[in-house]
Structure formats: structure tokens, C-alpha cells
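Example 3.2
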Amino acid sequence: MRMHAIVLKTLTDLFSVRRSILFLIVVLILPVIGSGIFNESMQISSMSLAMQDQTVLGFFIIISFLWIVGIPVVLMAGITCGDFISKEDQDGTLLMLVSKPIRRYEIVIGKFAAFMISSIILEITSILASALIFSSSLGIDVYTFNNIISLVPSLLAYSIFVAFIFGTMATALSSMFRSRIKTIMIVVGLTMLIFFGFMIARGWLGSNYESMGFNYMDVNYHLGNAYIFFLDASGYRMAPLYQGMLGMFTGTYDISNPGSLYDIDIGAMPPEIAPKNYTTPLQSMLIWSGISVAMMALGLLLFERRDIS
């Protein structure tokens, strides 16, 4: 048994109909509900084409970050990868697996590779399905729909990045701990901390956020900065309203002074909100990649040394 056999076996397990349908339902439920509420409140069909395009794309970008390529992807990575080794251990099959002519690190890498393949396929499906839901629910123009579709490669690339960093961390935790429940609880706790804990901490710390150097440790900011990197690659320029929303969730744009968000001279928001350039988007991606790869290396080391009997 070599690594390809591990990949194929894991893929078979991951592509169960129940798991795939459950993930798609969880991901698509918010676009279904959100687009309906959004259409009722904004009256999209009555907007000019330029306003419709800016409004719909902005809303799609925000809901994508939080949900379509956000929290469900993180939780899928955590629950799936966090179960890889600990489940084998609790089911009593780990000893049989390591007794095969395959190195222990190949077991871990093979399972993780299978997860990445399955997550890419599921994410392609969920992103395209979300775009179709927005199109049908909002009754948008073909021009706006084509612009949403143009964002798909960037959103897919970002979702792969998210699946990779959280999948490696969860796989590492699965290699470290014997308890499946403990591993999954840690991953869920980290998800809530990253998406909401740091946002709350930024508001609570106020001016001390930067003076204490917390801005460089803010992994939520680095995640938002990585998201901007992939959006910029598509050529999309976010409207100031949605820059402000993303800044509220991630701290990537300066919304500390409410007065700066409205230009009195033109009677509207400024053309753009100043970004918080604590680090470049590429540096933020390297920080996240470094954390995940370091955790994976530690997990592999501990797994190699674990006494399995």
C-alpha cells in the first residue's frame, strides 16, 4: 500500500452523497436567504445597470468572504481533517494501517491530499451554484452576472488557500491528539476566534491595538488581507461601502474615524477607503502559510514518534 492507495481510499470516503449534499446545503442556505432579503430591501431591479452591478457584486464579495468561501470551508476542513488520524486510532484501525509497507508521513499527506481534491470540487460547485442563486433571486442583468462569474477563479483560489491552511492545521491536531472530540472542539473554537474574536478585540483595544503591536498578530486581518490579494488579481475594485464592511470584519480598511467615511464636498462616500497597510497581502499569506506548515511539521514529527499499540 503506497500513498496513492491512501488518497483513493480517502477520496471514496469523502465523496459520500450525504456529506456532499450536507455541505452544499449549509453553504447555499445563506445565499438563498440573503439574496431574498437583499432584493426586498434594495429593490435591485429598479436600479441603473451601473448601480446594480456595484451593489450586487459588493454584496456577493462580502457574503463570499464570510460564508461561501469562509466559515463553512473552515469548519469542513477542521471536522474532516481533524478526524483523519484520531478516528483511525479510536476505531482501532491505526495499528493495522501503520503496519502496512507505507511511511507514517505518507498516511497523513495522502489523506490531506484527498481532502484538498474533494474540497476543490465541492467549492467549484458551491461558488457556481451561489452565483446562479444570486442571478435568479435578484433578477440581475447579464452584464452583472458575467461580472460575478469573472470573480469565480479568484474566489476558488482563495477557498483553496483557506482549505489548505485550516486543513493542514486540523490534520496536524489530529496527528497530535488521540481524541476526535478534542480535536474538533479546538478547530471550532479557533474558527470562532479567528472570524469574530479578533474583530471584537480590535474594537475593545481601540488605540492600543496598534501601540501594543496586536495588528501584526491579528490573523483575522491577515486572512482579510489575503482575500484582497485574490480579489485584486481578478481586477475587481471594491466600492467604498463594501470596503468599509470588509474593514469592519477584518480591519483591512481604516474605519476608525467615521467622519472620514463621508466626503462633505461631494455629498457621498469617498472614491475609496484607505487600506490598513500593516503588511502586504503577500506577507499576510506567508504568515498564514508559515503557521499552518509549522503545525503540520510538528504534527508529523509527533505522529512519527507516537507509540501505537
